[in-house]
């Protein structure tokens, strides 16, 4: 019967220990710092969230969401800045955050991770872009979702444009992946159907030009 009293006394002591400017926040930082970090990033605007470097460990409660929120912020910043410049650091940030989630096996984040890797390729120097494209191709091949076909096809199309040549079988397979992605619905907040349709048409032209029909 004394447990609630003892818990209250403990929390009161913690407030006294860390200060009383904002007792709720102070208690959260002492009792559950991971959830306190999550609450902090949830309250941030996009630029602040993109600039935040997660302090928690991925297996800790709430830490996956910290990586997802900050990764999403970096991803949107990279997308917004792709045409005007300055997207590279945000693309790298997004790839890093979603890479942690991928390695931890967190579901529902794979496509955003692929989009981040695509943006890394698009913002890389020519010397680094080929490696980025090979990484995108390898990662996309491991994602079991029709929308991932856009990224598989994009990697083949990039190779044909900048590193070629590409065998007919690979070009034909890529066209099929792009067509599947064009028919897939939006997922993870991404809608690449229009881009996949454009890509499928370009790959069709490559196939025709190369006599791969």
What does this structure look like?
- The structure is a single chain.
- This protein has 213 residues and is mainly α.
- It contains eleven helices and no strands.
- The protein is elongated, with a radius of gyration of 22 Å.
- The N terminus is likely disordered.
Write the layout of secondary structure elements.
Layout: H1 3-18, H2 23-31, H3 33-42, H4 46-51, H5 63-81, H6 88-103, H7 110-123, H8 126-141, H9 149-163, H10 168-183, H11 193-209
Question: Which residue ranges are poorly predicted, with pLDDT under 50 across at least 5 consecutive positions?
Answer: 1-21, 23-30
Q: Quote the beta fraction.
A: under 5%
Helix content: over 70%
Q: What is the oligomer described by this structure?
A: single chain
H/I helix tally? 11
Termini gap: 80 Å
In short:
With 213 residues, this protein is mostly helical. The chain contains 11 helices and no strands.
List keywords for this structure.
single chain, disordered N terminus, mainly alpha, 72% helix, 11 helices, elongated
